[in-house]
Amino acid sequence: MNQRPVVEPGAAGAAEAGPGPGTGALRRPIVAANWKMNLGPSRAAAFFAAFRLGPNVSRVRLQFFVPAVSLAAARTAAKVAAEFGIQNVHWEREGALTGETSAEMAREAGVALALVGHSERRHVFGETDAEVARKTRAVSRAGLTPVVCVGERLEERRAGRLEEVLRRQVGAFVGALAGAKEWMVAYEPVWAIGTGETATPQDAFEAHEIVRAALGEAGPGPILYGGSVKPGNAAELLGVHGVDGVLVGGASLDPAEFAGIVAAAT
Ligand code: PEP
């Protein structure tokens, strides 16, 4: 494994952290909220009414993946510069697919980004690598930014299969990034999502190196870390070489906690 320092000097100043491959010397760290199936329209509006950010927030790229039905309320209530995303799409443009939303429809509703292959989609809803690739292609086709999630289960890590799993997951969708004007990948170890367990800086560094190497042919793009990010560990994780931002679930539901994570990134 690479011998560079895992944590950049001045970790909390991630905006000045040395060039993560392809992200440029003055990258803007990404702080993304994944509300999952939480915060309907009225609670989404209440979130933004209570969401107060400190100075230098323009140094952060702020994103909210909200429930589709809360999108309009969230966009209206947000008084901060933020991008909005959808948490899942179907790969077809339209049709007899009850309950599904296409990337084109999401774009029309003001969405700029789409999560693809989140661990809950893969492991609760049984989404396969092939489906993740089709969705990635559909999101790119619609002109949205795919944020494709990868990550190993605990038993896979314990069995020494981290690299194999990440390479397989990335290999399945990397070709589908070709048409995207922009893309991102989120490394989210399944064992760290919603568990309070966080990857160590060394874990995150090693996994990001594997993901970046596997993405090789797709060129440079930001890679986020996700898994129990909190105000208390965000600065350290954002300071890890190759970590270009964080994807936050549980802690993004509380305006003060999420503002604390944004502050850690500035
Ligand atoms: C997520 O849902 O993407 C996530 C990382 O959740 P949590 O922060 O709650 O672990």
What does this protein look like?
The chain is α/β, with parallel strands linked by helices and 266 residues long. The chain has one domain: Alpha-Beta Barrel (TIM Barrel), CATH 3.20.20.70. It has 10 helices and 8 strands. The protein has an 8-stranded parallel beta barrel, surrounded by 5 helices. Helix 5 packs across helix 7, helix 7 crosses helix 8 and helix 9 (231-238) runs parallel beside helix 10. The longest helix has 14 residues, at 201-214. The radius of gyration is 17 Å and the shape is globular. Residues 9-25 have low confidence and may be disordered. Residues 34, 36, 188, 193-194, 226-229, 247-251 line the site of phosphoenolpyruvate.
Q: Which class of secondary structure composition applies to the elements?
A: alpha/beta
Quaternary class = single chain
**Please, what is the CATH homologous superfamily?**
Aldolase class I
Cα-based radius of gyration, to the nearest Å:
17 Å
Largest sheet: 8 strands, parallel, barrel
> Averaged pLDDT, please?
91
Query: What's the order of the H and E elements?
Result: EHEHEHEHHEHHEHEHEH
Q: Terminal Cα separation, in Å?
A: 29 Å
Q: Could you tell me the CATH topology label.
A: TIM Barrel
Beta-strand proportion: 5-15%
Walk across the major sheet and give the strand order. Answer: 1-2-3-4-5-6-7-8
Count of domain modules? 1
Low-confidence region ranges: 9-25
Bound molecules: phosphoenolpyruvate
At CATH level 2, the architecture is: Alpha-Beta Barrel
The CATH class is: Alpha Beta
Helix content: 25-40%
| Envelope shape | globular
Number of E-state strands: 8
Enumerate how many helices there are, as a single number. 10
